[in-house]
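Figure 6 in text form: structure in, sequence out.
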């Protein structure tokens, strides 16, 4: 069998059994992008403006809805409209980390009602498989998908070794799980996505321990599927459209180079 990382996104879309992943791979192939924008801004206006500008060049918009100071239900509706307009999915980077019953309430209710509008969310596996089951009870019937945090991109992170291995086992055995947050391809037992944060065109870091790696290192060498980029696209003195185009090209070229190996 040809490893998943050596197959095109179109081939993987055709073979995949999860409708959301099939849709994502189709978007990626259609738009020639494996770029996810990490939109860590604090107002509705900033988020919607950024999503509208960069939307044509991304496959996934990653949000942190709990940092939006003026959040309301209209924001979710507006994000959904932009996702439809620009052909991308929405990933709420919630990082759930509680017992199954609690995360059910957090995911399906509260003021954010994440399951109503986010195609994808994620969780830590510290609580055990119950957290996956709780989230699945809310999201599976709605066609949503879950990513597990197998690794993080910050210096000194503890998600390594046996913890990562157990997380991969949980992912393989749970149909609601569509992939991982991590830096590499973790398994060939199922076609599970890897989305990688901390990607920059020049490897470096920041004052709070974030570590950056290049698209070529992450996509070509490590077999990751989607690069997550934030401040490098919309930070101070940045042109978000121009930077999104640069990262889209770099990520896509890294993918094409991987296919040639």
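Output sequence:
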């Amino acid at each position: 069998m040809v490893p998943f990382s050596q197959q095109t996104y179109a081939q993987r879309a055709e073979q995949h059994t999860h409708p959301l992943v099939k849709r994502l791979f189709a978007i990626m192939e259609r738009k020639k992008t494996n770029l996810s924008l990490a939109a860590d801004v604090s107002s509705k206006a900033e988020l919607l403006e950024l999503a509208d500008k960069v939307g044509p060049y991304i496959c996934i918009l990653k949000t942190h809805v709990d940092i939006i100071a003026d959040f309301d239900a209209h924001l979710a509706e507006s994000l959904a409209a932009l996702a439809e307009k620009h052909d991308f999915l929405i990933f709420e980077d919630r990082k759930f980390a509680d017992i199954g019953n609690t995360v059910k309430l957090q995911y399906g209710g509260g003021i954010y009602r994440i399951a109503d509008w986010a195609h994808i969310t994620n969780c830590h596996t510290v609580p055990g498989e119950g957290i996956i089951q709780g989230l699945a009870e809310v999201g599976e019937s709605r066609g949503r998908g879950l990513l597990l945090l197998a690794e993080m991109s910050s210096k000194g992170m503890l998600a390594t070794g046996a913890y990562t291995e157990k997380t991969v086992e949980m992912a393989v055995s749970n149909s609601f799980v569509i992939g991982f947050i991590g830096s590499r391809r973790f398994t060939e037992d199922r076609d599970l996505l890897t989305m990688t944060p901390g990607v920059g065109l020049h490897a470096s870091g920041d004052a709070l321990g974030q570590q950056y790696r290049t698209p070529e290192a992450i996509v070509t060498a490590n077999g990751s599927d989607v690069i997550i980029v934030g401040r490098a696209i919309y930070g101070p003195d940045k042109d978000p459209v121009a930077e999104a185009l640069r990262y889209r090209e770099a990520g896509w070229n890294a993918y094409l180079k991987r296919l040639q190996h």
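Caption detail: The two ends are 16 Å apart (CA to CA).
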